[in-house]
Amino acid sequence: MKKLIIINGPNLNLLGKREPEIYGNQTFKDYFESLKHHFEGIELEYYQSNIEGELINKLHEIGFSYNGIILNAGAYTHTSIGIGDAIASIKTPVIEVHISNTYSREEFRHKSFIAPNAKGIVIGFGLQSYELAIRSLL
Fold this sequence. Notes:
Layout: E1 3-8, H1 20-23, H2 28-38, E2 43-48, H3 52-62, E3 68-72, H4 81-89, E4 94-98, E5 120-123, H5 128-137
Parallel strand pairs: 1-2, 1-3, 3-4, 4-5
């Protein structure tokens, strides 16, 4: 059985409340339950932290034993060389995910420190971006 994890970074714990015009009205908890139901044949886990070092620690912890990581590092995507380096240091493939189209937003969101070390990127398809990333790993 494939073992995948979704890792969300800062402020993504506020999905459903935060800027619904960009991120929608559904909580990630509710969406994650629907993903688990849709992908019953895989072991799917979820982790979220607002703290950069905790995200790096999680990548180190699972980066040699899981079949795939779906990572939405939020704003850390555009600022964290450390998260980019952590991805380069592990063996598990990482798919970078963004709910919004980061290229249609502020210019600082056009640079990713994750992308050079990711297997692929899915951006701009709302919460469905996570489903597309899972499918890419199966």
